[in-house]
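Dear colleague,

Thank you for sharing your sequence with our group. We've completed the structure prediction you requested, and as agreed, I am returning the results in plain text so they can be pasted directly into your records. Please verify that the sequence below matches your submission; if there's any discrepancy, let me know and we will rerun it promptly.
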Amino acid sequence: MDAVTIKDIARALNLSTSTVSRALRGSYEISAETKRLVMDYAERINYQPNPIALSLKENRSRVLGVIVPQIANNFFSQAINGIEAIAYNRGYHVIIMQSHESLEREVLTVQQAMARRVDGLLISISSQTNNLAHLHAIQQRNVPIVMFDRVSAELDAPKIVADNFGGAFAATEHLIQTGRRRIAFVAIPPYMAITQDRLAGYKAALTQYGLPYDDDLVRFVGFQEHEFDPVIDDLLRLSTPPDAFFMAFDRLALWCMTALRKRNIAIPEQVSLIGFTNISVAELLDPPMSTVVQPAQEIGQTAAERLIELIELKEKAPATSTVKIPNTLIVRESTKRKTE
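Please find the predicted structure tokens below.
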């Protein structure tokens, strides 16, 4: 069968080809009723736009570049699902690349995305990214960038994030309300905005409940599991060790549960454990783990929508706006109330 074209849709609906084209792109110039009429008909006849023709006509590839630290991370896989859903519905394709927590790899993947002529870039920076020269260079080429989850104030770009401060405050408050007073906070490198916001939420909850902030209870680690065990040992050797562990990153929560089990420390009888995570197995662990769940798919959807708006120049809101999406605290057995 021959492919259906915009001209075929226009002829069937008695509209001009330019009106159909704008309606399919979601242009503000076309009424909502006409858009609905065109979209319903296009779906009914299974219309598929020709990406090569669109690219030549619009001088755009209709491809979004997505760079994440690691696809295997459950948060990023959910965010990518959200990105792809929006991109597909808006007629865009997606190229997904990984930095593997490496600044060097991130720079290379950005270069690869530009070589493929992406229309815009969605990026969550690596744990090593403390220099954003490669992203500034992309902006100088007028390629729009939207940052999500792991963002940096050094880049003048839209940022879509979870409410990291609010989520950390809620987790710490919950531990305090269940009788815990020596709450260890363990996170990824401190120069990252995501860590700074979660640490600020932790401190604010301590202050609100009249508990002192103790620098000895705060630790920062990398992404290698062998780096983690010495941190737990240091915390447990304190003269007054923690009675709760707040792991402010998903992978750390699993490592902490393993480390405590190896040391025969019972959860929650001796210590509480809470994560900031999207791991799907949290409720299947022993004990089931309390977590702050991030709205990963919604973050991905919002980031993709924002990038497409910038590409198509449909909106006039400040390009540097930050959107914070609320988290959800899920309480399970690992933070059961302390008994005297």
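Summary note from our side: The chain is about 40% helix and 15% strand.

Kind regards,
the structure core
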